[in-house]
Amino acid sequence: MSYDHIFDQLDIRTEPFAICEIHGTCHVALKPDAAVTLHYILCGEGQITMRGQAPIRISKGSLVLIPSLNSHEVLNDGATVVPGPSCKPAALNLAQVLKSAPDEGDGSASRLVALCAHVNIGLMGATDVVNLIREPLVTRAEPGSDLMVLVDTLMREVCEPSVGSRALIRVLLMQAVIVMMRKRMTEQAGTLDWMAALRDPMLWKALNAMLDNPGNPFSVESLADIAGMSRAAFAKRFSEAYGAGPMELLRNLRVRKAGDLLRNTDLPMKRVAESVGFSSRSAYSRAFEATSGQSPSAFRKAVRKP
Question: Which terminus of the chain has fewer Cβ atoms in its 10 Å neighbourhood, N or C?
Answer without folding.
Answer: C
